[in-house]
Amino acid sequence: xxxxxxxxxxxxxxxxxxxxxxxxxxxxxxxxxxxxxxxxxxxxxxxxxxxxxxxxxxxxxxxxxxxxxxxxxxxxxxxxxxxxxxxxxxxxxxxxxxxxxxxxxxxxxxxxxxxxxxxxxxxxxxxxxxxxxxxxxxxxxxxxxxxxxxxxxxxxxxxxxxxxxxxxxxxxxxxxxxxxxxxxxxxxxxxxxxxxxxxxxxxxxxxxxxxxxxxxxxxxxxxxxxxxxxxxxxxxxxxxxxxxxxxxxxxxxxxxxxxxxxxxxxxxxxxxxxxxxxxxxxxxxxxxxxxxxxxxxxxxxxxxxxxxxxxxxxxxxxxxxxxxxxxxxxxxxxxxxxxxxxxxxxxxxxxxxxxxxxxxxxxxxxxxxxxxxxxxxxxxxxxxxxxxxxxxxxxxxxxxxxxxxxxxx
Length: 409
Ligand SMILES: NC(=O)c1ccc[n+]([C@@H]2O[C@H](COP(=O)([O-])OP(=O)(O)OC[C@H]3O[C@@H](n4cnc5c(N)ncnc54)[C@H](OP(=O)(O)O)[C@@H]3O)[C@@H](O)[C@H]2O)c1
Fold this sequence. Notes:
Elements: E1 5-10, H1 14-24, E2 31-37, E3 52-53, H2 57-60, E4 67-70, H3 75-87, E5 91-94, H4 97-114, E6 118-119, H5 130-137, E7 143-149, H6 152-164, H7 168-177, H8 186-189, H9 192-206, E8 216-217, H10 225-233, E9 237-246, E10 251-261, E11 274-281, E12 285-292, H11 296-311, E13 328-329, E14 334-340, E15 353-359, E16 362-368, H12 369-374, H13 376-381, E17 385-388, H14 402-408
Parallel strand pairs: 1-2, 1-4, 2-3, 4-5, 5-6, 8-10, 10-13
Antiparallel strand pairs: 7-9, 7-11, 9-10, 11-12, 14-16, 14-17, 15-16
Helix pairs in contact: 1-11, 3-4, 4-9, 5-9, 6-7
């Protein structure tokens, strides 16, 4: 039990300032910010300058500081800071999903080796306490799936497009001005940010530590009016969805991609910067969590909750990873997709595919997840817009090729 936390804070941007506000108004917690490390020497700050440093070692080497709160927007430097802090015996709270997802195995080893806490509730779904819920509440329950909208800024953009007819560029600019979007927008709209969160959720839901490079992420960056009209005609919206689901007793699968969502689904009504998470389980059945997934105060509140948990020495136990029954990640899964193209040759990037419908500039087809994953970077860089139809396809074999069928018709 730590009686008084002395915080070394890294980053004083959207979330760092959000945390400062939340902490100042929370009288119950005994925690003081001792020093704040930032980068830009020319920025004016809303706190006295004696709080700030530009030298990370002023925090890392300060023995009075017993907790490091890492809220910077540079994942590589964040890992250096977090690693050094843990090695020097300081507990760490971070919101950096990219850093956690890329280094989860090593971070868990550091937590054990140096007997410190590493908590990152704010890294996934902002103010929804999904990590601790999976870790503690569902520690033994058999989960069928965890799915939902995990990226506030792309959801904000899609909401503005579908509900207010804003164009993509204007909606993205608004999301950035409101502090919902990452400094580099492709992280959000390309589905990378959502995928990093999904990596973390898969570890806590199923005990599987999958590297993010091994998870498919497709984004909304190529969304056009054709796709919006197609969805509207079907009475649906397009949402960027994360899915991790159990296929059978031994296997799970996982992916991030735009998906058509109908009005009878909870996620249809998750709008703007809100996130929505659906947990389906054998005994508790279906549960739906809704909350703000971005913004300084909602994210700051998740950081505060982790800081509070450090006061009672809370650590993630990764319960599912230590269970006897081990699960495997399968990519041998069929997905039914809507694919809109401007250059038909780019359909080759889907690999073998069975077309069930062809329209003007688009196809509906069934493809294998493993083929999409092989071409993930090329698909990201192509002009294709790809969305999961949301319909389940059974089996594991694709019988026809997309191009044969397209060329024969
Ligand atoms: N924004 C959200 O809604 C949200 C939600 C969930 C999680 N997150 C995560 O929270 C973290 C922070 O995001 P943010 O939106 O607060 O970013 P931000 O507004 O861009 O602020 C980034 C802060 O990091 C500082 N910084 C960057 N590199 C640094 C370095 N090498 N050393 C010290 N300080 C450095 C910057 O310093 P200067 O002030 O000097 O520029 C700035 O204060 C990210 O990992 C992000 O993914 C954000």
